[in-house]
Amino acid sequence: MKLSKKQAVFGSEVLTRFELFNSLFMTLPFYQVKHTGILLPFFTTHCERGVAEKFDPEAIIESFFAQYQQYVRESDRIDLLFRIIQYIERQVVLFDAVEDAAFRKTGRSDEAGLLDSVFKQTENNKALRSKLVKKLNDFSLRLVLTAHPTQFYPGPVLAIITDLTEALKSNDINNIHLLLQQLGKTPFMKKNKPTPVDEAVSLAWFLENVFYPVTSAIQSKIEDEFDMPADGDKQLIELGFWPGGDRDGNPNVTVESTKRVAQLLRTVLFRCYYRDFRMLKRRITFKGIERYMDVLQDRFYENSFNPSENPEDERTVIMHNLKEVKRVLTDYHDGLFVELVDDLLRKVRTFGSFFATLDIRQDSSVIRQTHAYLREKYAKQVGITPDFEQLDEAAKQQALKFEIHELQHDDAAHPLVADTLGVIRLIKEIQQSGGERAAQRFIISNCQQASDILELMELFGWSGWQTASLHIDFVPLFETVDDLTRAAAVMEALYAHPQYEAHLKRRGNKQTIMLGFSDSTKDGGYLMANWSIYKAKIELTAIARQYEVDLVFFDGRGGPPARGGGKTQRFYASMGKEIANDHIQLTIQGQTISSQYGSLDTAHYNIEQLLHAGITSAIEQKDGDTLSAEKKQLIDHMAHTSHEQFLALRHDPLFLRYLEQFSPLKFLSQINISSRPVKRNSDKELRLEDLRAISFVTAWSQLKQNIPGFYGVGTALKQAEETGQWDQVKQLYETSGMFKTVIDNCMMSMSKSNFELTSYIQHDKVFGDFWKKMRDEYDRTKQYVLKLSDSNVLMENYPVERESIAMREKIVLPLLIIQHYAIKQLQKSGLKAADSEVFSKLVTRTIYGVVNAGRNLA
User: What gap in Å lies between CA 347 and CA 239, rounded to an integer?
Assistant: First the structure.
């Protein structure tokens, strides 16, 4: 196959340079690293050969050590395996840095999705340009950083990656050499499990070092293009934050941690402001601005280094004084350095006194429990019928009174009840110190009925919130296939409810609805999850338009396609006329944060991609993106076929046993990367319904089987062909951006699968047939997606990404062999406690590198 120009550039700028600097890294004078560096290529080749010959991991490891007399003792073997893991972890970092450094040269397959192309397109078309300006005034993009447990790199390592990337850009060999030495000596692992505040500190690194400058730069670019004022009201890019606020299934998130995170965000922000202000102060040394600069100096410094326990919102004061400085510069000093003032104005307008909106999230069952506690404790005051729980849904909605009370909880209250009531009161404090946008959303997970929202709304009234000043958006989260089916009916009941309707009007008639990809995939399989969410969006949009509600979809997306990741911008670019798309909101989590937003270049590119997707879907919609009734019926039929195939696998008695026996599932709780448990209850017995989607998907990705990202798709496509519908499916792929993206992302999941790695399982007496069933569906899916896309290899239309994935898979193959080897050792009877601890550590250490290399595996 002839190399494309992009592949050639990628080969020279990334692959060749990686091999060059990797060879440099191998010769660094660390303890025994040089020896490890010499052995690693031989070990990698040995692993590749062993996998090709379908050997099990134990045979591969044992046969390797048999070649070296110095590795007779078990302790020496284990020591080398740990050093190999450490070495590969740093190889992954080096590859990340080399690839990020070459980002502008290698480009990406979606180059056309940059804002410059839109500006050029509308340059000589006044009507289209006018349409674009109107869209920009109505549009917003919100990126929400979440604390899901696959953002492994600690702050010092992130800083090294950033510096190494810059050194690689300029070929600063001396600095590269020093940074590689620093990398080799810097610990990657955290000794203790992080608290929610620790997680917030880690993610605040991205806010401070990436999002703070990049969002301002993009906003400036758009304002310059369309002559918008830097001190105007339009905010195009918003940031959200979950660490410290997301308490769903995480007992470690408390009122105190939420308060500390809100304070942290504010302090980090004001230090960013203060750095910018110092540069401003060095340049603006003219008469007439002294008093304004003195006020700004005081506000920025005090909030940075002497923050008050109960600070006030400083945004209005800061904006006023910056505008006065700008006025004086414009009127009396020829506008000198006014662009520096504009930049700071733009940032203050965007980030206020809070930096990122701290979302609060809790499960609906906890909301109901809290409501029941106060309802029963203060029965006479609230006057709600004692048989409330026995009422049907419609009667429950009518029984709620929405009166204002100051109801308190006592020490007998359940901790989750106390936390819920405490955080409702805390939100008011956060809004007072950071403004309304500091904490204005309460997300209800597992939302099943309208009363879940209404009960939460009443809890705010019972906590002393006045109706007129209830500056809160209540956001239902629909996740499972069943919940998605009922979502439109739930929202219609809310829109028709008089109290909620009045509240919505006070909130500008804007309703945010969160849709979760992760649990829907775990629940219904890949194709059914994507179709259920798309179909729910159509139904929810229709209801919102009927009630004249401005609808905002907030998509809970993970890193991999199995959790809504992949080429997300293509989803937003392909929303048809039936789906509200004036606003794009999505979570970015796990390794996706550092892989897509870890550097200034990648963050700038990916934010522009999303902006472009939202803008162009409105100004130049493709006819095929609005699905006809026939196409909907076709996808629906395939989704149900796929769903049946997935459920047959999921309900197999061996399903969970297989994951527990061959994947590192039970070790995920032992890695010190998250404050959140891997499952939703503390029972020793593992149940699929309690297993978090991230743990579920991560376990499959470590096995290199990625079942949640493709299983059932091949069966659905095969049945479509057998029933004479292939031509319609082919046309659907060619005309529907949504369906094409679903299939292309499926191919991405499959590109990161390697069934050869576990092919030895086919001979297992218990699990052999189960493994073959999954491998057969993989082969079937591969056959049909290649046929559908007219391709010879997976991801043929994305050659750069394909090359990147292939190299990353090559780097981590030894980690996977070590991981599976250690898991097999742990299953042997009579294993000593000390040996068990060592092999467990081997497993957990390999998890880090595999996820880091995959970039969107979890």
Answer: 12
Strand bridging mode 237-241 / 583-588:
unpaired
What are the structure tokens assigned to 776, written together?
């057969």
Q: Are 245 and 256 in contact (CB under 8 A)?
A: no
Helix (H, G, I), strand (E, B) or coil at 577: coil
Task: Quick: pLDDT tens for 209-235.
Answer: 999 999 999 999 998 888 877 767 778
Return d(Cα 316, Cα 301) in angstroms, integer: 17
- At residue 141, φ and ψ (nearest 5 deg) are -125, 125
Contact between 543 and 488 under an 8 Å Cβ cutoff? The reply is: yes
- Digit-coded pLDDT (tens) for 753-774: 999 999 999 999 999 999 999 9
Kind and range of the H or E run holding 240 = strand 237-241
Residues 101 and 619: their CA atoms lie apart, in Å, by 34
DSSP letters of 139-183? Answer: -EEEEEE---TT----HHHHHHHHHHHHHHHTT-HHHHHHHHHHH
State how far the alpha carbon of 814 is from the alpha carbons of 24, 494, 809, 855, 856, in Å: 20, 54, 10, 17, 19
- CA distances to 370, 372, 415 from 462, rounded to whole Å, are 11, 12, 18
Phi, psi of 672 (to 5 degrees): -85, 70
Cα 683 from Cα 686, distance rounded (Å): 7
Would you state the structure tokens that stand for residue 721, as one six-digit string?
């062909």
pTM for this prediction? 0.91
HSE of 100, CA atoms in CB hemisphere, 13 A: 27
**Residue 618, number of CB atoms within 10 A of its CB:** 18
